[in-house]
Amino acid sequence: MTGIGLLGCGAMGGEIAGAVRDGKTGDARLVALYDQAPGVASALAESLGVDIPATDSIGHFLGNADLDLVVESASPDAVRAHAEAVLSAGKDLLLMSSGALTDPELSARLALLAVEGKRRVIVPSGALGGIDAIRAVSDRLDEVTLTTTKPPKALRGAPGFSEWELQTLTEPTVIFEGAALDAVRLFPANVNVAATLSLAGIGPTRTLVRVIADPASSVNRHEITAAGDFGAFRFEMELKPHDHNPKTSFLAVVSAIEALRSACSSGIRIGT
Ligand SMILES: NC(=O)c1ccc[n+]([C@@H]2O[C@H](COP(=O)([O-])OP(=O)(O)OC[C@H]3O[C@@H](n4cnc5c(N)ncnc54)[C@H](O)[C@@H]3O)[C@@H](O)[C@H]2O)c1
Known about the structure:
Largest sheet: 6 strands, parallel
Distance between the termini: 22 Å
Bound molecules: nicotinamide-adenine-dinucleotide
Oligomer: single chain
Number of helices: 9
Shape: globular
Order of helices and strands: EHEHEHEHEHEHEEHHEEEEEH
Strand content: 25-35%
C-alpha cells in the first residue's frame, strides 16, 4: 500500500483525501494531512472520520514514516516552499499547482532531485484534455494557443484582474493576451492549465494564452489549438466549477484522483 499525504486540504485536497479513504485510488491509504492554515487539516480529518496525523507543521508531515507519496493541492507558493523538501525526504510528489514549474531553475532542481533519489514528480493533466496528444507531438509543434474563458468571480483576486476588480463587466472581455509564462504570474490560482499545456508542449514562452472574462458564463471554458508538421488539432472543454472554489474546475479534481489511482495501481493503463 502506498501511504498518501495531502499537502493542502482545501477544495481539491478534501476530495482527493476522500477518494483515497474510500479506496478509489488503487493500492493506497491515507496516512497524513497538512495545511499551513491552523486547524484546516484536523478539520478535514474529522469530517472524513479518519484517525491520522493532521498538522500545520511541514516538519511533522514530512517526518511521517508511513508517507510515500505527497499530493500537493495547495498553491504555487507551496510548491516553491516544499517540493524540494518532499523529494529530499524520499517521497514521490504529485503536484497540481503546475504554474510553479514554469520557473526553469526550480524545475531543473526538482528534476535533478527526482532522478538522484529515484523519485517521481507527477503532474496530472488537470482541467485540460489533450495533454497526451500535445506531449506526443511536442517536438513537431509550431504553435499552441490556449483560450480560457471564465466568469469574473473565477478570476477575482488575481493580480492580472486587479484593474477589472471593481468594474461590472457586461460582455465577454479579453483580460490578458500573451505568453503562458506571464499568464501564470498574473493568474497564479487560475491558469495552471496554461502551465501544464506549455510544459507538455513548446514551453511557457512560446505557448500563447488568452484569458477572457465572460459575465454570462457559469462554466470555465478552455480551447486549445495546436499546429505543426503532423497536422493540427483543437480541443474544447466546458467545465463546471467546483462547488467550494469557483477557480477550480471539477475535472481537475477527478483528474488528480485518476492520476493518483494510476500511480498506485499495477495492470493495464490506457492513454498514458
Ligand atoms: N492543474 C490544474 O489543472 C489545476 C486546476 C485547478 C486548481 N489547481 C491548483 O490546485 C491547487 C489547489 O486548489 P484548491 O481548489 O484546492 O484550492 P483551495 O484554495 O480550495 O485550497 C488550497 C489549500 O491549500 C492551503 N495552502 C495554500 N498555500 C499553502 C502552503 N504554502 N503550504 C501549505 N498549505 C497551503 C490553503 O490553506 C488551502 O487550505 C491550487 O494551487 C490551484 O490553483 C490546479
